[in-house]
Structures are given as C-alpha cells and as structure tokens.
Amino acid sequence: MPSCNINKSSDQGQVLQRCHLIVWDECTMAHKGTLEALDRALKDIRDCQAPIGGVTLLLSGDFKQTLPVIPKGTRADEVQACLKSSTLWHHVMILSLTTNMRAQLHGDQMSAKFAQDILTLDDGKVPLDAAGQMEVWPFFSVVNSVDELKHKVFPSFTENNKSTKIVIAVANVM
What is this structure's pTM? Predict the structure, then answer.
C-alpha cells in the first residue's frame, strides 16, 4: 500500500496543514494508490477524517488520454489502477471544460478546427473509407520542407517571439 512519508511537524506537513487547495494536473496517469495515499496522509496531517483531509483537490486530466502504466499489465490491470476505480471516486464532482480559450481569445480558427478534430477523434466519429480504415487526411497537413513545417506550427513566430504579453484565461465550466 503506497504511503506519503510526511511528518506533521516537517515543513511539508506545515504547508499541508494550512493548505486549502491542491491542483493535480494530468491525474489520469496516476495510480489510484497515490490518491489513496494522499488521502491517508492529509487525514493524518490535518487531524481531519473528511475525504482528502478536508482539502479541495482539483484533479485535472482527460481519461481519453493516458491511463496509469502497469508494466506487463493488461488493459484490465490499467483500468483497475485508474483513479476512477478508487473508493474515493464517489466524492468527485466532475466538471467539463467546454470552451477552447485559445481559439476564443485569439480568434484562432486553426486552433478551433484542431480542437474540433480532436473531439471528433476522441468520440470515434471519424469516417471510415471503403476498406473500413479511418480517414485521417482531414486531420493533418503535408509539408515539403522544414521551413514550411515551422511556418505551419508557428505562423507568427518572428513577430511574437519576444512578446512579454501574458494572457490569463478561465474557461467556462458546465
């Protein structure tokens, strides 16, 4: 059983006692044992038996992407190790991001199309050809040189590479 070896009186323990929010990005790759170890540690450190020791835990990730890697494991082993298989999962409130902020803020039609193409792939709605194979040609561009590739990937690089402008955006949540 995984555990977090953080002492209540350590610097880390002191931070976790005062903590109100923990953000865990790309959580879908984590083994459920790590979530359960964090739960036990926070309950102990904070002297609170509420789930995750009463701290708000923001789990961020996409389960359509990478699941936990289980060496020499089967798909069933990966699913069993997934956070959704944890006894803590019933405490999770699922919120979905619905707006591609890059496309919306910058009026970037290429980003909007790419985001829609990814959703089409994720949802398994890509048309099949006569041989029953996925038609992927709408999802990529052919280039003939490294310079053309650079321009496709970074179309305004020379104009924007020294920009210090920072954009902070919050996506709409369902």
Answer: 0.64
* pLDDT digits 0-9 by tens, 151-164: 877 777 676 666 65
21, 56 Cβ separation under 8 angstroms: yes
Beta-ladder partners of 173: 97
Read off the pLDDT of residues 36-68 as tens digits, 9 standing for 90 and up: 999 999 999 999 999 999 999 999 888 777 788
Is the torsion defined by CA of 125, 128, 132, 135 positive or negative?
negative
SS (H, E, C) 75-122: HHHHHHHCHHHCCCHHHCCCCCECCCHHHHHHCCHHHHHHHHHHHHHH
Residue-wise DSSP of 145-159: SHHHHHHHHSTTHHH
CA–CA gap between residue 161 and residue 170 (Å, rounded): 24
CA dist 107 and 38 (Å) reads 41
- What radius of gyration, in Å, describes the C-alpha atoms of the chain? 22
CB contact at 8 A, 59 and 27: yes
Q: What digits encode the pLDDT tens for the residues 82-94?
A: 999 999 999 999 8
Helices 11-18 + 32-46 axis angle, to 10:
90
